[in-house]
């Protein structure tokens, strides 16, 4: 594909896409939005029934989708997903959205090593596996696109979120690296870094009981966006060839503070946290 032609291409349009964690929240919104853009979607999720529900919604809207059960933290299952997706869609995959993720909160010394492993298994290894198995396919195809769902947590470094923050910082670092490394291979990369989006992430996560209800309430009632808007915006940013999607004002503000005054920002966090019981 010529340089001119590939720069006119919109990866979100008529995509042959794989979306992980497509059974709920942001992943479901990505799958539905891709279908609206005349795409064919493989909805992968550890929860097969949830993935099938997303497929039903897409089929009702008149588009084509398939459900596959996959634990993204298990390399063999992601390799299987990559192979099966191509067979089901009868077309090479052109876009992978590494979205599956889990929420984990609590003080550093409250977290068990099992908590850490669970969080990194899904949030970090899931994304590494997705990139590992799809990048060679995109190179062979001559083009492709990747959306990695990180979080504003990848740079906000808020207290009581150590494992989650680490997992998402890794996703952002990987996305930044691949954005530059894969440019000459005509593979686009976008890294999504939202703050609060109303989904099931708190309800289904491992969040300390002392604030799980409050956190879920904040997520469901005070988020400045919806999963549908986030998915739409991210696909538009990918089409424009942008690396970062920071959908909300607070995500942009934290990014600016962290980048321009990192020491002051850390002191501010430490100071504020003294008043949290
Ligand atoms: N909701 C937010 O406020 C928010 C903010 C920033 C980033 N994110 C990120 O967005 C992504 C999507 O989360 P969400 O908010 O839509 O949550 P969600 O809980 O609504 O959806 C997550 C989906 O991932 C699936 N999943 C969990 N473990 C899996 C595994 N091992 N393999 C495959 N699928 C698995 C779940 O079954 C679920 O369908 C996550 O990576 C999350 O970290 C969410």
From TrEMBL:
Keyword Mitochondrion: no
InterPro entries: NAD(P)-bd_dom_sf, SDR_fam
Alphabetized SUPFAM superfamilies for the sequence: NAD(P)-binding Rossmann-fold domains
Keywords: Oxidoreductase
GO cellular component: membrane
Pfam families assigned to the protein according to its UniProt record, in alphabetical order: adh_short (PF00106)
Keyword Oxidoreductase on entry: yes
Organism domain of life: Bacteria
Molecular-function GO terms, alphabetical: oxidoreductase activity
Record family assignment: Belongs to the short-chain dehydrogenases/reductases (SDR) family.
Protein name per the record: Oxidoreductase, short chain dehydrogenase/reductase family
Organism: Oleiphilus messinensis
Lineage of origin: Bacteria, Pseudomonadati, Pseudomonadota, Gammaproteobacteria, Oceanospirillales
């Amino acid at each position: 594909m010529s340089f001119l032609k590939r720069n006119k291409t919109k990866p979100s349009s008529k995509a042959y896409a794989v979306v992980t964690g497509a059974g709920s929240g942001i992943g479901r919104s990505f799958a539905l939005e891709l279908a609206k853009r005349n795409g064919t979607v493989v909805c992968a999720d550890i929860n097969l029934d949830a993935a099938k529900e997303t497929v039903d919604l897409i089929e009702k809207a008149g588009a084509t989708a398939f459900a596959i059960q996959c634990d993204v933290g298990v390399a063999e299952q992601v390799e299987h997903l990559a192979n099966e997706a191509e067979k089901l869609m009868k077309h090479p995959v052109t876009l992978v959205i590494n979205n599956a993720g889990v929420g984990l909160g609590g003080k550093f010394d409250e977290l068990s090593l099992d908590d850490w492993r669970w969080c990194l298994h899904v949030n970090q290894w899931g994304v590494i596996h997705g990139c590992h198995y799809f990048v060679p396919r995109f190179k062979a195809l001559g083009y492709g696109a990747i959306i990695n769902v990180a979080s504003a947590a990848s740079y906000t470094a808020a207290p009581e979120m150590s494992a989650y923050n680490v997992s998402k910082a890794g996703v952002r670092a990987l996305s930044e690296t691949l954005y530059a490394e894969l440019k000459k291979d005509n593979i686009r990369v976008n890294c999504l870094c939202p703050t609060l989006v109303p989904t099931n992430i708190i309800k289904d996560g491992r969040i300390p009981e002392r604030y799980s209800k409050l956190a879920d309430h904040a997520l469901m009632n005070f988020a400045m966006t919806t999963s549908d808007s986030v998915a739409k915006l991210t696909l538009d940013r990918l089409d424009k060839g942008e690396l970062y999607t920071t959908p909300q004002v607070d995500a942009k503000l934290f990014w600016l503070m962290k980048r321009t005054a990192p020491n002051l920002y850390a002191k501010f966090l430490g100071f504020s946290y003294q008043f949290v019981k």
